Amino acid sequence: MNLYPVGTGPFIFRSYTKDDSIRFDGNPDYWKPGVVRISKLIFAITVDPAVRLQKLKRGECQVMSYPRPGDIPAVKADASLAIPSQVGFNLGYIAYNNTKKPLDNLMVRRALDMSINKKAIIESVYQGAGQAATNPMPPTQWGYDKNLKDAPYDVDKAKALLKEAGYPDGFDLTLWAMPVQRPYNPNARLMAEMLQADWAKIGVKVKIATYEWGEYIRRGHSGEHEAMLIGWTGDYGDPDNWLGVLLGCDAVNGSNFSKWCYKPYDDLIRKGRGTTDLAERTKAYTEAQEIFKDQVPFTPIAHSTVYQPISKNVTGFKIDPFGPTQFMNVGLK
């Protein structure tokens, strides 16, 4: 299906060259008139963000994804470019594998959580294009609990928690860093290095590892990691797409990279999923977020602002809050 897709969409698949390009033609028979405004659509696969930006500036492409935060001022200063932006419907976080020692110990997870200098990470990694995350879903999602607070950044208390948990001298930990950019994490390697420095202050010796992106996700699904950097962009505007998909018991072999299955939490998620009453759903999801914050299955880091640089001759382009780059109604002057 990936190589020979079937569909009735606005663009017709023509070819895919691995690690190079994907080519489409505009669908002249698309059911909705006026939506298809370009005859050829090419995704030029370009891993390096600096190269992507240079291609955009030279006119080799008209739309660019995932700019580096540090390049945004240069894009804004270029008279030939525009840079639409939108508050991201996303979350970048550190998943602790709750099935592996010592991360199965709540005091250990709390110690790791409170020894992270989140403010410094957001300043260095997101460079003004992100806001600190507290909850397991973004504040633009209905049902978000505004009363939740992060544990204060406290290295001494974190050391005391580790000692109480039976790790007075700390322990060794492997942290996986994503090999790719995503809106929720523009520089996973830098974030991992900053976490490595933070956790060294409480005696936790971190080894950073990574894999090819497909392998990274596959190994994460199977639970091979101890801790990993990962994130999520919402598929639709419902709390269950965050609280259930990322933390529910039935998602342990899927996108629940924390491998956390906690019945009091899961009962609330199922309750919220099982009714259409908005007040009841909100109450269940609020209580679930409180349990999440107490149990720390993962540490939320940031919600990033999404930027999408484009040439000024592009018309009709809009950022999709759910992540895909859509080309319906998009044309060129």
TrEMBL record:
Pfam families: SBP_bac_5. SUPFAM superfamilies: Periplasmic binding protein-like II (SSF53850). The keyword Signal applies. Keywords: Signal. The keyword Signal applies. Residues 4-251 form the Solute-binding protein family domain. Belongs to the bacterial solute-binding protein 5 family. This is Periplasmic dipeptide transport protein. It comes from Paraburkholderia aspalathi.
